Amino acid sequence: MPIKILDSHTVNKIAAGEVIERPASALKELLENSVDSGASRIEVHFEEGGKNLIRVLDNGSGIPADELPLALVRHGTSKITKIEDLFSLSTLGFRGEALASLGAVSQLTLTSTKIGSDKGGQLRCEGGKVEPVRPVAPLDGTTVEVKNLFYNIPARQKFLKSTSGETAALKKVFKSFALIHPEMTLTLKQDSKTVLFYPRQNFLKRACDVMAIQTENSFHLEAGENGFSLNAVLVHPKLNTSTQGGIYIFVQGRPVQDKLISQAVLEGYRNLVMDHQYPQAVISLNVPPDFIDVNVHPAKLQVKFQNPSLVFRFVSSQIKRVMAEKLETEINPVSYVIPTEFQPFLLNDNVTQYNQKEFESSGESSGEPVIFTSPVYPLHGA
């Protein structure tokens, strides 16, 4: 078969499949765009689990009418200008793919007014075909409406779950978003009925509301060290669960699926939770921008750290410290069971380097997890 160059519509549909897997992933991308616009209030409407309709309204800075067509061009973005910017990101939606991808596989309407302007603009896109911008009455921010997701890709549409299944996924994304943005007022409406509402709150109260936990059964953790900062809500170990679904992880403000941090949380709760039970926690970690690569997954669900073991030690030790203080258990010494898969990345501190050298010189490399021991020191900002 001869080599052919795919047309732009096919390319966009393929790209959409990488970024937009289901209504929930579409919602995630739209919410992140609203955050980057500086919104303080977001309202989401959906029907049929998001398959028929997802509408996101925010009061952010808006988009000038003459720039609306650029918003639907692949890699059209205001967040980066060169490859180096990928390693110093402070925004969420940076690739400029979300709206272009949605426009390729749905009937999309983008309506926006640049803050301070008395003129609004509206742009419609159906299956990748963009109509001219038309003037509309000004509104407060931006509204994105996505109808009939995957209507032009039946093969993908048939793999969507039932309405109840997609609805559950949408709510999960919304709750996850609410956890990391307690400063926002958030509303979720299903068929015009409000099903979730979170007023502006502090981090502890928002986490407890989302997880349906009483504040007296949770501990707020704030710590910082060497450019790392950790903001977490730790649920009392007596309220454990049978799955890891109660552990919410955010890195640089993004929800991620990270085995390293999950293991660090389990290590932090070690000996406090019964076997085959798991703690509940909200972990929000920030690291220096050049310490992390967030560009390793199309939907930004995974990250890559320069030194995973350093992250593991920081998170697990802080959880151990708080649990020791709140539960009045012995706090010295603290041990860190670093999973074997993360051991090649040695820690940079003197205590760990010393322990690692002692381990290697003893000739006891058995393949078992290495246990490092050191006293617990309060960190700046703790």
Distance between the termini: 63 Å
Percent helix, as a range, is: 25-40%
Work out the radius of gyration: 23 Å
Global shape: globular
Strand percentage lies at: 15-25%
H/E series, N to C?
A: HHEEHHEEEEEHHEEHEEEEHEEEHEHE
- The average pLDDT value, as a whole number, equals 82
**How many β-strand runs?**
18
Uncertain runs with pLDDT below 50, 5 residues or more? 76-81, 85-96, 330-334, 344-382
Q: Could you describe the largest sheet, including whether it forms a barrel? A: 9 strands, mixed
Helix/strand class: alpha+beta
Helix segment count?
A: 10
What does this structure look like?
The protein is α+β, with helices and mostly antiparallel strands. It is 29% helix and 24% strand. The protein has ten helices and 18 strands. Strands 1, 2, 3, 4, 5, 6, 7, 8 and 9 form a nine-stranded mixed sheet that branches. The protein has a five-stranded mixed sheet with strand order 10-11-14-12-13, sandwiched between helices. Helix 1 crosses helix 4, helix 2 runs parallel beside helix 6 and helix 8 packs parallel to helix 9. The relative contact order is 0.11. The C terminus is likely disordered.
